[in-house]
Structure formats: C-alpha cells, structure tokens
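Annex B. Sample input.
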Amino acid sequence: MTHPLLTPAYERLLGLQAALYAYTRETAAEYELDESSPDHPLWGVHYNRVCVAPMRNGLHVEYFGDCWETPLDMTLACLSEQAVADSITSLSFSGPDEGANGTREWSFAGLIGTDLTFPILRSFYVRPSEPDHHNGSLIVQDGKIMEEGGDIARLVAKMPYLTELTVPNAPDASFFKQSLPHLKILRIGGNFDTQNFIQNLAGATNLPSLSILDFTESTELQMTWAKDRDDSYVTSFEAYENLFKSHVSETLNGLTLRNTRLSREQLEHLQALRPGLQFMVIQAAQGGYVSHFAQHAFPWKHLVQADPGLE
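Annex B, continued. Sample output.
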C-alpha cells in the first residue's frame, strides 16, 4: 500500500494549501493590511487554511476558514476531484465565528452536485455552534435561506463507510432513507428547527450500528418566548419516549441530550425504559448579553441560576 504522504492526492492538497496562502496574502495586500510586524492583529483573512495529516490508510483533511466565496470554493473544488476523494479518511470543516444576519451557513453544493464518492471516508465533521457564538452554524441547501433541504442526506450518500458524523443542524427525513450500515457515532448540533429528528429516528431502519447519539434541542427554547414560539420546532416528550421504546434504542450504548426542556420526572421515566443506557443530559445553551435582560428580547432565565449545590 502506498504511503498516504506519497499519493497524488497529498500533492494536490499541498497545492491547495499554497493556493489558499496566496489568496490570504493577496487579500491582505488588497486591504492594505500590515503583515510585517508580529504585534499587528491577525485579520480574519489570515485564518483560511487547510491542514492535512496521514490517518489510517489515507488522509485527514481539515478546513478552517470562511464558509462562503473563494476559500471554501477552492477547497471544495479540490475535494471534488475523485483522485483526491479516494484518499480521504476524515474530513472536517470549521472556522471563525463570522457570518451574516446571525447565521453561518455552509453549502456543500460543490460536492453534492457531482458523481463524487468518498470510498474510504470514515469521519465527517462540521463544527456545531458553541454557546458563545454570535452566528449559528448550519448546513443549508444552495440557494436557500436557513433551509437544510436534504443536503446532509445527499452528502452522506457519497460516504459508504461513514462511521462518525457531526453536523451543526438536524437533517430532514431523507437522511433516514440512506444506507448507513457503519454509522456508529452521531452528533447533531443545535439549530432552530430539529426537523422532527428524534421522531424520525425512532422509526428508522437504516442505522443498525448506531451506538452513540449526541443530540442538541432546538435553539428556539433560548431565542423565543414560549408564547411566541412555534412549538413544532422543539422535540416533544412523546417523541423522546418513542425513541426509547424503539428498536433503534436497543443498539445505543450512550445517549446525550443537550439543552432540553424535559423535567426530572420525564428524564427519569426515560431512563427507566432503558436502565442500562448511559444517559447524560447537558445544559450549555446559547449565551446572551446582560444588557439585554431588561428588554426581554429573548428568554434569559437559563443564564441566571442559583447555586446548584444548595439542597
């Protein structure tokens, strides 16, 4: 077997690194940014990069940068070459907390709109939103606004040996029509619309190996007051109960639920349905500015808590 660092794919990716670096220098010059002194700030353009490392029988490729225009386009164009995709075992996308109108939208049309496959890819990662982020990350269908539109399903259809998947927002029902026999670890980040993910998962038959699930509840719980909220965006207790009673839950060894509105009684009821399941809950929801509390612009009570150690 050829060493991963001796393959044409690696040479092509080195070329991409050089092209991205040239782009950052040209853009910096266009904006007259001083790069000569080490005490000058790092501007956003400087962060666009691709890192490559050998992994298993192929290459781990990690993109960090803008989720729009030239840097991402250059990267997706490189990855869409079958000779490159043939050597990738792990693929990761992330970048700085920059976006427009409060969102950071990733479009993978450059990969989806081809006959491309990733025959040895085991892990695909798009960084979920963090509590301190000002822009919510999500995968969107090209030409749409804040609509996933089935693109996550179209992506994973190109990855026959996918084992680990992390995405910043929930896929739609078409995800459960894809054959994913090797998928073991699945993390769904938080976005406003869960697209009935938990209810759809409860009826799924395409994930026979799923053993670890990490799911984040709708961000509408922290963004919109209950009286104004479209509650269909938020997972119901009944949907969680259906999952715990489903065949899918029988293969799960670990389940993490983030930022739910479930009560202690409801959580303990779910645990009783699967006593042997490692069932964890996490509350680490989106942050907010103290100066906005008095305006009641968003639900903020989750940000002001008494000492949880007091009995």
